[in-house]
Design goal:
- This protein is an alpha+beta fold.
- It contains 13 helices and 54 strands.
- Strands 2, 15, 16, 17, 18, 19, 20, 21, 22, 23, 24, 26, 29 and 31 form a 14-stranded mixed β-sheet that branches.
- Helix 9 runs parallel beside helix 10.
- The relative contact order is 0.10.
- The N terminus is likely disordered.
């Protein structure tokens, strides 16, 4: 018999507490221990994204001897980075010194204004050798893997400034777009000063490249400063295009982004700044950027005033960029926040103080929780904390730089003593243990930010107070199913009136209530008797209205359409209403969702009134789930005139349905199918013949789940009893989705290891990503040579669909063919040729289709009957060749699944291959390929082939 173990992927039912509790003196926070929270497929806490420092492990600041003083510990780097589990970082100095300070870097004598590639190569080799010799920092490579490289304004902005005898080219012509020479310099730097994707020695290549640091500050905000000069914003954005193209001409390892905005105030001058800067940047350079880069700071003390971004302002800022990115580019770009925290204007030039550090700490905790709430869009976030920063010390007053991790022990009285931590280390002390899977947590008070994670029997609960005044929070746990709390370890960061304090307290048993200091943060570590069981999942999605930025006229209705909303049938919804209004104007509009009034909260997120010129933020308005439909109208009416509605979006929190699984037997095949799994993910099939055996065997990995959450796998009935389980897995080893930045829209031929007939074109690289051809007999060859030894295998997986409109054909239809061939030439292979392949055929006069080898049926592969091969059906074509000792003993298996209809031909086997294929596989190499044949022949109505993804792997047993 065959048995199926019902352990299938993610199983989830939603139970959310705390969202609808009326406001009271104490805030109420509910934690659903058994409910995983995911957004964009992300459900874990990635410390490498969020617990970071603006430094790299090679900084000399980690060493003893700076200013002649020793560190308080023998190994500062290990004490900080390993002891607190911190990741690096950002480097703006290396490339800038290479341009401005390295006299060996020359310009190209035959191309003035462009760097000499030979000197870049020789100096890069010196740098890499120096890195290789500095073995003490090699153990930190994994913590530096997500590093950012950024060029500074001076030396890289083309303005004629001369360094080491030459200036970057200022040309701005069709043949040399503005910024091309800067891009060439940066591309060569990436090639020669790093390991270039592991192809040579040296420091690992940066994951992210920011084109230039804060160009708006240098060129737009301080245009009158003779050190900077001025230029129209559009020229800065064109510079980004020129630099990005120049970098990619050399190097495609790193993602490229900008514009490293300094202080983004979208609402400044009735959103003139938005139109002039971010909107304009997206319009001109958006398609060339892989991510958006920003610097975000609170101003807690500027001329005696307080101006805050934390909380609602950040939310409104992100929503505008996300809306416009999606509306203009068809995709929401992710972010790199390469600096954040607080600018402490009134406290600067006074020497180090604990209070100045506190101003930064309270902003960092508030902002990082905003970033953590959108983990799928955050590539890297770095609080602006540097190590010792002697480069920033005032040479006249000897006043040290501000946001430092280290100070000398006698500061601020004198600049003497050993190097010790400033209070900025308390951010890392506070967060040192947090890890795990994100779970559902909710607060009834918008001023209390929350997040929570599970790691085994530990649960970490984060509570942050956005506003002034100590708050008492009542805590409720749900979903622990009798799993009792043994202890709670509390870390509380706050200002006590004279110092920044990090209290640590251990509580026996559960904790029903906790106090969070004024603008303070508390992290609770719960220890349970047993590991916490997460058996439900809440999935988040966000849908923006089709319009934005509407002026408010008192009494007038502003209507927004929020269409294409996907609903699973049970969950929660929040309307995110972005507004910019004078502080004296109403923030209590009348809001109708699909004609029904919803209650607008009176308490808004964070500081509702500070010293900003107006309120700009998000109002989160709960919406009854049952009011929503696929297409929705939102009507907003304010009683008074003035200001704008910046964005409208619906944030949907859905419970995922439990994964449903079933099994059936067709002929000699046992078919396991499931639905309601994670769409577009992957799964693996495991088996065992004895349930008491602790080891599961891996039968198959990298199996696809379609866009509706359906998956299926077929196994032959060859054992008397076998148990199966299906679990989530990663994608195949080599997986292509035809998306940016690896692919560009246009001809496939020549892109990323492809040789293809002219008909194959890449489309929608900024969206779903695919290749397609309308031609018959149009081949695409994966230009990766496959060489095998006896017993080794090569697999090829292709997800495809046909265009047109299906009709029962009057004759046989040969539609598609794939497998291995002996050359990498992008020419079609005849259906009866020598290649080791299989083709899809629709049988004449029927709606039955099948796999054939040349013109022969394939043993084990059944005809697919009962459901026709319609245009748009998502098909999965799987191929696996195993090399024998000769051509006759070489075999390959093929399988065709219709993921839309849930049908499966089962796995068929072809024994023996042509001698030319065997010779290629054991010699110069064979090549994976696929091609259209003639899908529209004999009146089938099908036309063209679209391939959505390709996977391949060499399997060594």
């Amino acid at each position: 018999m065959k048995c199926v173990e019902r352990r299938f992927l993610k199983v989830s039912v939603l139970c959310l507490a705390g969202c609808t509790v009326a406001f009271a003196q104490n805030a109420e926070v509910g934690i659903n221990l058994n409910v995983k929270r995911e957004v964009g497929g992300i459900s874990t806490f990635d410390r490498s994204k969020f617990i970071t420092i603006h430094a790299n492990p090679g900084d000399s600041d980690w060493d003893d001897g700076v200013r002649g003083a020793n560190n308080f510990t023998n190994d500062l780097l290990a004490d900080f980075a390993i002891g607190r589990d911190v990741y690096f970082g950002r480097d703006t100095g290396g490339i800038s010194w290479t341009r401005r300070g390295n006299a060996y870097i020359r310009q190209d004598s035959s191309n003035p204004g462009w760097v000499d590639a030979a000197t870049m190569a020789s100096e890069g080799l010196k740098s890499r050798n120096s890195y290789e010799n500095d073995t003490a920092i090699h153990p930190y490579e994994s913590r530096d893997a997500g590093a950012i490289m950024c060029a500074q304004y001076t030396g890289f902005w083309p303005n004629g400034d001369v360094y080491n005898g030459w200036a970057i080219s200022t040309a701005d012509t069709p043949s040399e777009p503005f910024g091309s020479a800067t891009g060439d310099f940066m591309g060569l730097y990436l090639d020669h000063f790093y390991d270039n994707g592991g192809t040579q020695s040296g420091r690992p290549s940066p994951a992210f490249v920011e084109i230039i640091n804060e160009p708006d500050w240098h060129i737009l905000d301080w245009a009158s400063d003779p050190d900077y000069g001025s230029a129209p914003a559009s020229k800065i954005w064109r510079f980004h295009n020129g630099v990005a193209d120049g970098i990619r001409a050399h190097n495609t390892e790193s993602l490229i982004g900008g514009f490293v905005t300094t202080f983004p105030d979208h609402d400044e001058d009735n959103f003139a700044e938005w139109n002039d800067e971010w909107k304009s940047f997206i319009d001109i350079a958006g398609t060339n950027m892989d991510f958006w880069s920003l610097h975000l700071y609170d101003f807690p003390c500027i001329g005696g005033k307080e101006k805050y971004r934390k909380g609602a302002n950040l939310e409104a800022m992100f929503d505008m960029i996300d809306y416009y990115s999606e509306a203009t580019l068809g995709v929401i770009r992710p972010y790199v926040i390469s600096e954040y925290g607080a600018q402490t204007h009134d406290e600067n030039n006074k020497g180090w103080t604990s209070y100045r550090d506190w101003l930064r700490l309270k902003s960092c905790n508030s902002m990082v929780l905003t970033f953590m709430d959108r983990p799928h869009l955050m590539l890297k976030t770095i609080p602006f904390t540097v190590v010792k920063a002697e480069w920033g010390r005032n040479s006249t007053t000897l006043e040290p730089y501000g946001p430092r991790l280290m100070r000398q022990a006698d500061e601020p009285v004198s600049y003497t003593g050993e190097w010790v931590y400033t209070d900025l280390v308390k951010f890392y002390d506070l967060w040192s243990e947090v890890k795990g899977t994100r779970i559902d947590i909710a607060s009834n008070d918008p001023d209390i930010q929350t997040d929570a994670y599970v790691s085994g029997s530990k649960v970490y609960v984060i509570l942050n107070n956005l506003v002034s005044g100590t708050r008492t929070i009542n805590l409720s746990l749900f979903g622990n199913d009798g799993n009792s709390v043994q202890s709670v370890y509390e870390k509380s960061l706050y200002w006590n009136g004279s110092a920044t304090v990090l209290d640590e307290t251990s509580h026996a048993g559960n904790l029903s209530q906790v106090q969070v200091g004024s603008e303070g943060c508390v992290i609770l570590e719960y220890t349970f008797t047993s590991p916490v069981n997460i058996n439900r999942t809440m999935s988040e999605s966000k849908f923006y209205a089709s319009t934005y930025l509407k002026a408010i006229s008192g009494g007038a209705v502003n209507r927004f359409d929020v269409n294409g909303v996907s609903l699973r049938g049970n969950g929660l919804a929040v309307l995110r209403l972005g507004i910019a209004r004078d502080h004296a104007l109403s923030k209590q509009p009348v809001v109708l969702v699909n004609g029904t009034a919803v209650t607008v909260p009176t308490d808004l997120m964070g500081f509702e009134i500070d010293d900003r010129f107006q309120y700009f933020g998000i109002i989160n308005i709960p919406v009854p789930y049952e009011l929503l439909q696929a297409d929705n109208t939102v009507d907003v009416t304010f009683p008074d005139s003035g200001g704008h509605i910046s964005t409208v979006a619906l944030r949907i929190l859905d419970e995922k349905e439990s994964v449903k699984a079933w099994a059936s037997i067709t002929g000699s095949n046992f078919i396991i199918s499931f639905s309601n799994a994670t769409a577009g993910s992957w799964f693996a099939l495991h088996s065992k013949t004895n349930l008491m055996d602790p080891v599961w065997m891996t039968n198959r990995t990298g199996l696809p789940i379609d866009a509706s959450g359906f998956g299926s796998v077929t196994n032959p009935l060859d054992l008397s009893c076998e148990f199966f389980r299906i679990v989530e897995s990663g994608p195949p080893a080599f997986y292509i989705e035809f998306t940016a930045p690896d692919y560009n829209n246009g001809a496939l031929d020549g892109q990323q290891n492809w040789n293809a007939a002219s008909g194959w074109m890449v489309g929608d690289v900024y969206g779903s990503g695919y290749i397609s051809t309308a031609d018959n007999n149009s081949a695409a060859v994966l230009n990766e040579s496959v060489r095998l030894n006896a017993g080794e295998s090569y697999s090829l997986g292709i997800q495809l669909r046909f265009g047109g409109s299906y009709a029962t054909p009057t004759g046989y239809v040969y539609a598609f063919l794939g497998g291995l061939k002996e050359s990498n030439i992008g020419e079609f292979v005849g259906t009866g040729g020598t290649a080791a392949d299989a083709n899809i055929q629709i049988i004449t006069g029927t709606d039955t289709y099948r796999l054939l080898n040349n013109y022969n049926t394939i043993a084990g592969a059944a005809n697919i009957t009962g459901t026709q091969l319609n245009a748009g059906d998502i098909l999965q074509f799987d191929y696996k060749l195993t090399l024998g000792t000769d051509a006759a003993s070489t075999t390959y298996t093929v399988r065709l699944q219709n993921l839309t209809d849930g049908t499966d031909a089962g796995e068929g086997t072809v024994t023996g291959v042509d001698a030319t294929i065997y010779s290629a596989l054991t010699g110069s190499g064979a090549f994976g390929f696929f091609q259209s044949i003639a899908p529209g022949s004999n009146g089938s109505g099908l036309n063209g082939v679209q391939v959505d993804s390709v996977s391949s792997a060499v399997i060594i047993p």
